[in-house]
Amino acid sequence: MKIAPRLLALAFVAATAAAPMPASAAERIGTFEKWEVVTFEEGGATGCYVMSRPEKEEGNYTQRDPAAVFVTHRPAQGAVGVVSISAGYPYDETKPVLVEIGGTTFNLFARGDTAWADDADDPKLVAAMKNGNDMIVRGTSARGTDTRDTYSLIGFTRAYDAATSACGL
User: Fold this and answer.
1) C-alpha to C-alpha distance for 116 and 66, rounded to whole angstroms
2) 52 CB contacts (<8 Å, ≥6 apart)?
3) What is the 3-state secondary structure (H, E, C) of the chain?
C-alpha cells in the first residue's frame, strides 16, 4: 500500500474543504448531476478531482462537518483514480470504513477524518462507482458514533471521464 500519494491527496482535500482556493489555483469545470469536476494547479502540475456530497446522512451525532467523496488524479505524481472519503468527523482508525455498491463491499482504512482505499482497490472501487446507482458509506467516529451516508452515483461516469480528459489521461 502506497500511503505517500494518499497523504498528499489528504492534504489537498483538507485544504480545499477548509478554505476557498484562489480562482487561479482551482477551477470548477463542470457539474454532472450530483458530481462536480475541478482542476487545480499544484507545484506547476495540473491535477483533477470529482467530488460529491451525501444525499442522505444517518447517525446519532450532534455536530458534524460536511462529508464528501473525492476521486483524484495527480498525473505528475503517478496517482490516478485515488478514492477518498471525508467523514466530517475524525474516524475511529481501528475500524474499517465500509463502502457498499451494488452488493459489493469495500474495506477502506482511516486516517483522521478521511478514509482511503488500498491502491489495488482504487480501480475496482472506481469501476463499481461507474456501474452503480448509489454508494453507502458506513463509518465509526473516534467517539464511537456509527454513521451511514448514501451518495448518488448518477453522473459519476461522465464526471470521472471529464476529469480524466482535463488531466490529459
Assistant:
1) 17
2) 34, 35, 36, 68, 69, 151, 152, 156
3) CCCHHHHHHHHHHHHHHHCCCCCCCEEEEEEECCEEEEEEEECCEEEEEEEECCCEEEECCCCCCCCEEEEEEEHHHCEEEEEEEECCCCECCCCCEEEEECCEEEEEEEECCEEECCHHHHHHHHHHHHHCCEEEEEEEECCCCEEEEEEECCCHHHHHHHHHHHCCC
Read off the pLDDT of residues 64-82 as tens digits, 9 standing for 90 and up: 999 999 999 999 999 999 9
Whose grid coordinates read 448518477? Answer: 154
Write out pLDDT tens, residues 100-112: 999 999 999 999 9
Pairing of strands 26-32, 35-42: antiparallel
CB 15 within 8 A of CB 21: yes
Which has the closest alpha carbon to 79: 49, 53, 115? 49
Global pTM value:
0.85
For each of the domains in the chain, give its residue range(s) and CATH number, in order of start.
4-15+23-166 (2.60.40.1880)
